[in-house]
Amino acid sequence: MKVAVVGATGNFGRVIVPRLLADPRVTGVVAIARRRYSSNDPRVHSISADVRDPGMCEYLQECEVVIHLAFVVSELRDKKLTREVNVLGTMNVIRAAAQSGARRVVVASSVNAYGSEVSEDFVTEDKFTLSDPDRYYFHDKSQVEHYVDWYRAYSASPLSIVTLRCSFVVGPDFSNPAIDAMCSRFAALPEADRASYQFLAQDDMAEAFALAAVTPSLDGAYNVAPPDRTSMRRLADLHGQILVSLPMRAAVTIADVLYRLRLLGYSGQWVTAGDISVDSSRFCRATGWKSSASSDDNALTMLRLNGREVRNIDVVERKWQRIYANEGIR
């Protein structure tokens, strides 16, 4: 099959395209992005285009599957432009895919589509994706999913749409302010004692998208995350980080002020008490996908990739096994 990857030069695309080319069923990849995708593989055709381009349908001709990754993640001050790319751009790609005759679109979503409230339980896809207008990324991801739900319900197109709600991705090709903060010697988090993340290896993320592209009859929304989660206190223990807990309102205000002064690369819209925890069993059953490493193991990889010296793991492990046992946390 021939696969189009929209947003091929981003963090996700740079990992997913090589994984697609490793599959003998994939005969070609159309790499679409504002910057040209550099590859010596003759099966790759690079196209420079904006996700909002009205000619998108032409670029997707003869592609059976379209993987849509183009999304503004790093915060821009122009939120109108951000929404145009994130929401209107996704709508444009889905309509173009249907017009071009593609049979499936795989959309990169996020666990943030569920909202910014953390959970004690591991939630399934049955949980409604909330809109959080105070956080542009969370809001745009949920709006995209609401549009996809509407399209499925009311469009006469046979196009199937798969949304993959990935947890926090880490690996050698991923770098962002959140990773920098987690790997620093000192960090301040809102409600740090509650905060946790499910760290997902970049290769496992790429495997999930490749499986979504080639698995027949796959449709709907799926969580993609390891089966465990890593608390921020545990992460801090692993590399000796001094972690200070702040009230949510104070943390948001401080981030907003520093962002306005251009002393911080993100505003309070990114300040949360960690991510919601999700259960990926549905995707595992549908495709055979399995996380190759635990969240804790991926957290260790993240620390080492960022030059942090990890403490005696056995000592930290015994401490947190006691904590988990006492609190009934898996």
Task: Provide a descriptive summary of the structure in words.
The chain is of the alpha/beta class and 330 residues long. It has a domain at 2-174 and 198-226 and 277-291: NAD(P)-binding Rossmann-like Domain (Rossmann fold, 3-Layer(aba) Sandwich). It is built from eleven helices and 13 strands. The strands form four sheets. It has a seven-stranded parallel sheet, sandwiched between helices. α3 packs parallel to α4. It is globular. It starts with a strand and ends with a helix.
Number of helical regions:
11
Shape: globular
Tell me the span between the first and last alpha carbons. 40 Å
Strand content: 15-25%
Q: Quickly name the level 1 CATH class of the domain at 2-174 and 198-226 and 277-291.
A: Alpha Beta
- Please outline the major beta sheet: 7 strands, parallel
* SS elements, strand count: 13
Summarize the structure.
With 330 residues, the chain is of the alpha/beta class. The chain has helices at 11-21, 56-59, 79-100, 136-154, 177-182, 202-214, 232-239, 248-260, 281-287, 295-305, 313-327; strands spanning 2-6, 28-33, 44-48, 65-68, 104-110, 160-166, 168-170, 186-190, 196-197, 199-201, 220-224, 230-231, 242-246.
Keywords:
7-stranded parallel beta sheet, two-stranded parallel sheet, 39% helix, alpha/beta, 330 residues
Q: How is the topology of this model organized?
A:
Layout: E1 2-6, H1 11-21, E2 28-33, E3 44-48, H2 56-59, E4 65-68, H3 79-100, E5 104-110, H4 136-154, E6 160-166, E7 168-170, H5 177-182, E8 186-190, E9 196-197, E10 199-201, H6 202-214, E11 220-224, E12 230-231, H7 232-239, E13 242-246, H8 248-260, H9 281-287, H10 295-305, H11 313-327
Parallel strand pairs: 1-2, 1-4, 2-3, 4-5, 5-6, 6-11, 7-10, 8-13
Antiparallel strand pairs: 9-12
Helix pairs in contact: 1-6, 3-4
